[in-house]
Design goal:
Helix content is about 75%, strand content about 0%. Helix 6 runs antiparallel to helix 7. The longest helix has 17 residues. It is elongated, with a radius of gyration of 16 Å. It starts with 5 loop residues before the first helix and ends with a helix. About 35% of the residues are buried.
């Protein structure tokens, strides 16, 4: 049986069958397919196993292919936060928001991590700055 193609992985994602998409992505990766979506799905599987270090590695591999992907950056930030690497997590969230100011969830997790680092004023300022940006669009 030939390895899964990127089209098959994408169809499974669009159908909402993330488990199948992750299985297909793992198969495709073993066959040598390198694509940000594949690495994102591999990270998803690692996160389900609570292996945040492996998930972060997969996300970093995906970011090497597409360093401007806010989804990968936000997911990486969340993994880094779970690994107690909050300064790196904050940097990932800030980059995601710089690239996509209205990206869902990135602002909340950025504020949570800034607060955890003792920077509650920065968290509030970033939140207010983001709200102003969204209102001006």
């Amino acid at each position: 049986m030939p390895p899964a193609s990127l089209d098959e992985v994408e169809r499974a994602v669009r159908a909402g069958d993330i488990d199948r998409a992750a299985t297909l992505a793992a198969d495709a990766a073993r066959a040598g397919l390198r694509h940000p979506l594949v690495f994102n799905l591999l990270a998803h599987v690692a996160e389900q196993r609570f292996d945040y270090a492996a998930a972060a590695k997969h996300l970093q591999d995906g970011l090497r292919l597409d360093p401007r992907d806010p989804s990968l950056l936000t997911s990486l930030g969340m993994c880094l936060a779970k690994l107690e690497r909050r300064p790196e997590a904050v940097a990932a969230f800030k980059t995601a928001l710089d690239l996509a100011p209205d990206f869902p969830g990135a602002l909340n997790v950025l504020a949570e991590n800034l607060t955890a680092l003792g920077h509650s004023e920065a968290a509030l300022g970033r939140s207010e700055e983001h709200t102003s940006e969204l209102q001006s669009h």
